[in-house]
Amino acid sequence: MTHPHQTTSKTSDAAQQTPPPTHQPATYKMPPRVLLIGGHGKISLLMTPLLLSRSWTVISLFRDPSQTDEIRALGHGQSGKLDVLVRSLEDVKSSQQAKTIIEEAKPDYVVWSAGAGGVGGPSRTYAIDRDAAKCFIAAAVAVPSVKKFLMISYIGSRRKRAPWWTDEDWASCQKVNTEVLPDYFKAKVDADECLTALGKRREDFNAIVLRPGTLTDGKKTGRVKLGKTGASGSVSRSDVADVAVRLLEREGANGWYDLLEGNEEAGGAVERVIREKVDCLEGEDLDDMLSRFTE
Hints:
Layout: H1 4-17, E1 33-37, H2 42-52, E2 57-62, H3 68-73, E3 81-86, H4 95-105, E4 109-112, H5 121-142, E5 148-152, H6 167-180, H7 182-199, E6 206-212, E7 214-216, E8 223-227, E9 234-236, H8 237-249, E10 255-261, E11 264-265, H9 266-275, H10 286-292
């Protein structure tokens, strides 16, 4: 019969030979904070409740203080927190001014969904869609805690013909960019290229450019064409907002994504373009972008 002390001795020896288990403290990832620039825009108004429903914090930046109550109402009954910043983008003339706003908001992600909207002529278009956007891009890249920047652009914002486009696609794009909206094109493509080039400076930074076709006010369908699409077509702002939030919440989204209405479920489309590393930057001159946006 085994003596009780023998059993205790064996257990003690084993305990001495086996290192005690290491218990790592449980890590809790705080929901991200999102600085939504152009918070009163149509797409932003649709994005805000989607972000809040994920328990994220939204800091909505807009120009007109009379819109504050409308913005705050979007947070009622939501699990996330909504804050507001009343600022004029036309007053942002340097990356340091933009950095001051970013440091006040303390975002993890920045979304640019602002624009002159054709009001105020070409000078205002360049001041907001190009210059202010580039200031915020440079500032975001310079703040290590900012990990993602999502730009709402448009499908024709490119200098070269996409390799997958038809002749009709390219002709349609050229007509818009040279005849219909030449100043908007010049402003947007410069901002998109700035984000792409500066985003390459950091391995831990995702530069996402979402490029929808003609925008409509239709209801969300949840079904899209995402990635290498044609140049002609439309998509509802509701679907743009949905895809934008899905891209933000997924790790690995990085690059240019064209977007039209279609037949693929939106969540599956986002998973696919990330899995397949789709990037509609293909065909553009990345080296030229990098050379133009170096300090």
